[in-house]
């Protein structure tokens, strides 16, 4: 079987992807590209269609229309071939709760077609990645939430996948474990694994993603390296003005009249791209612009 | 967590390739995945086998106790009034007939509840389908496992019968095969039903309106020859009836050409149910 690869090697590319559930347009014309060896972050509010997109990439949801190519395979027709070289960490834990950590890995090593002679080593390495070597024979229900999450990630790595799909990989983990996971994901990327990751933690996207695609209502609103997105939408500096609600409204009006974009953050109004504005803007605290400002501006959503 | 410098996967990684430099690994091109692969099926079955390791005692218990209860209730109870049926001791008649009942209970019910729970509550099927395993393989593996298990457990009533004085012909060795074939069809039926119903509570309709009549009008406890013609025709459409007849003919040593037709009917039943189970499960799992 000969296979022609696109000129610019894409681990994954999606064009004009659409999927509706009844009247809900979960994915509405999404374009997405993950170049080989890079990490792309999908950032979007709840219900933006991130998980639905992930499921279409494994052939577990059929698109209504659009093109999907994963590792050079056309989906959904060749999704099985693509899945053989892909590791998936779902948003919702689907470990086998009645089995031990080790048995969970043993079964998946088989399902991922790890050759029989290498299976034990793959399982041992998986337990190490999950830091569960000492708890290998503990039943999953006896593991903590963080341990389960780590096991879920180790399960996706058993066969040395070329592409990783991570749907909110660090949700519910404490900061220390999250940092470790970031180091691991970054390490995999450095070694050449392509990664598509959704997250609600802006910091996670900033730290890990080479490029970020911001999605809202099933569409890509903008994409680019985090720093570029920040420069494009939020400038260098943000001026944060605090005050009672009435005052905030006033500030918002003034800033917009002067041609600036703003975002609310509960107790304050943030004026984006405020560098060099001087006293054209109300006084406030100045800070560096962040990806979070871009996210809120583009999706109209507040970050938790 | 392993840090990047730890041997997370590179080096001794299974297919031995470097994704960064080799976007189209040679192994994959030559080893094209087929539609139904044995590796996928054994992988899915392994999950059941490991789980079974923890629950086999309950299975053996249920499959032994149930026929004993029937033998005592019907064989000994009715046995006082009815001594011989169709030329056999009534107790032998019941112990051979109960094979079909045991198969039905251990396959159809397990398939219904098991596949519903694994699909809707535990999301096990979702996890499996994110690996190189397709719905055909998933369903085939699950059904095949239940069939093997049901074939073995389903044959226990014969052993119980022997303990109560049944004298088996050599053809009795085919009983587990008949039980497996029947079990395949009923495990697939259970999977199909589970993929069609809206909620797990709907299984009670199926149990009372479908499985109970099937089980009663199969010739397990009384011969169908005395029933009105309509019932006898219906009985020929009941796979359990064919199972009952085949098991009796094997155990009593009077296998005849009609048995071949019964095997054919069971094969047809198994094939149809498998196809339905795959189709409906796919619709339920892949939206
Ligand atoms: N199987 C389904 N049936 C009906 N509607 C669905 C289904 N799956 C997703 N949806 C709807 O599609 C939309 C997108 O859901 P999706 O899970 O993709 O969002 P998401 O971006 O992953 O959100 P979150 O950040 O909360 O995980 C939602 O409105 C959701 O209710
Ligand atoms: Mg989601």
From TrEMBL, chain B:
Residues 1-29 are annotated as: Disordered. Coiled coil: none annotated. It is found in: Cell membrane; Membrane. The keyword Transferase does not apply. Keywords: Cell membrane, Membrane, Transmembrane, Transmembrane helix, Transport. Residues 7-21 have a biased composition (Basic and acidic residues). It is a multi-pass membrane protein. PANTHER family: NODULATION PROTEIN J. Belongs to the ABC-2 integral membrane protein family. This is Transport permease protein. It comes from Paraconexibacter antarcticus.
């Amino acid at each position: 079987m000969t296979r022609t690869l696109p000129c610019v090697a894409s681990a994954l590319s999606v064009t004009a992807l659409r999927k509706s559930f009844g009247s809900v347009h979960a994915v509405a014309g999404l374009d997405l590209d993950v170049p080989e060896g890079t990490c792309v972050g999908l950032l979007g509010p709840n219900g933006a269609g991130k998980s639905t997109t992930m499921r279409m990439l494994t052939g577990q949801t059929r698109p209504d229309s659009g093109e999907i190519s994963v590792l050079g395979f056309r989906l959904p027709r060749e999704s099985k071939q693509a899945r053989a070289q892909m590791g998936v960490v779902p948003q919702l834990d689907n470990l086998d709760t009645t089995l031990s950590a080790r048995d969970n890995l043993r079964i998946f090593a088989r399902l991922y077609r790890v050759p029989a002679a290498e299976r034990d080593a793959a399982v041992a390495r998986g337990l190490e990645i999950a830091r569960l070597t000492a708890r290998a024979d503990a039943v999953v229900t006896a593991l903590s939430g963080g341990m389960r999450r780590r096991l879920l990630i180790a399960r996706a790595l058993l066969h040395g996948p070329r592409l990783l799909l991570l749907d909110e990989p660090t949700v519910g983990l404490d900061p220390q474990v999250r940092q470790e996971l970031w180091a691991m994901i970054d390490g995999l990327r450095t070694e050449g694994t392509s990664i598509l990751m959704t997250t609600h933690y802006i910091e996670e996207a900033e730290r890990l993603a080479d490029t970020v695609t911001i999605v809202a209502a099933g569409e890509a609103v903008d994409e680019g390296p985090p720093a570029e997105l920040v420069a494009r939408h939020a400038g260098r500096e943000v001026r944060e003005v605090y005050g009672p609600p009435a005052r905030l409204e006033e500030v918002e009006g003034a800033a917009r009249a002067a041609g600036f974009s703003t975002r609310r953050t509960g107790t304050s109004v943030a004026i984006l791209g405020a560098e060099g504005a001087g006293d054209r803007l109300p006084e406030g605290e100045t800070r560096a612009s962040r990806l979070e400002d871009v996210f809120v501006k583009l999706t109209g959503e507040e970050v938790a | 967590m392993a840090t990047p410098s730890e041997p997370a996967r590179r080096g001794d990684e299974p297919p031995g390739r470097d994704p960064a430099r080799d976007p189209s690994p040679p192994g994959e091109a030559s080893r094209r995945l087929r539609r139904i692969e044995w590796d996928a099926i054994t992988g899915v079955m392994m999950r059941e086998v490991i789980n079974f390791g923890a629950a086999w005692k309950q299975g053996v218990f249920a499959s032994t106790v149930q026929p004993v209860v029937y033998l005592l209730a019907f064989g000994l109870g009715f046995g006082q009034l009815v001594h011989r049926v169709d030329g056999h001791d009534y107790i032998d008649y019941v112990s051979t007939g109960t094979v079909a009942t045991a198969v039905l209970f251990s396959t159809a019910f397990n398939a219904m509840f098991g596949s519903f729970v694994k699909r809707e509550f535990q999301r096990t099927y979702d996890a499996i389908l994110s690996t190189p395993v397709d719905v055909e393989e998933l369903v085939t593996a699950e059904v095949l496992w239940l069939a093997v298990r049901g074939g073995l457990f389903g044959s226990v009533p014969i052993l119980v019968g022997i303990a109560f004085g049944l004298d088996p012909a050599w053809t009795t060795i085919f009983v587990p095969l008949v039980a497996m074939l029947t079990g395949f069809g009923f495990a697939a039926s259970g999977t199909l039903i589970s993929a069609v119903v809206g909620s797990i509570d709907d299984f009670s309709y199926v149990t009372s309106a479908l499985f109970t009549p099937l089980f009663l009008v199969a010739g397990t406890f009384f011969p169908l020859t005395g029933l009105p013609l309509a019932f006898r025709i219906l009985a020929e459409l009941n796979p359990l009836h064919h199972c009952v007849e085949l098991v009796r003919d094997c155990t009593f040593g009077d296998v005849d050409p009609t048995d071949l037709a019964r095997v054919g009917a069971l094969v047809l039943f198994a094939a149809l149910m498998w196809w339905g189970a795959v189709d409906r499960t796919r619709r339920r799992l892949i939206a």
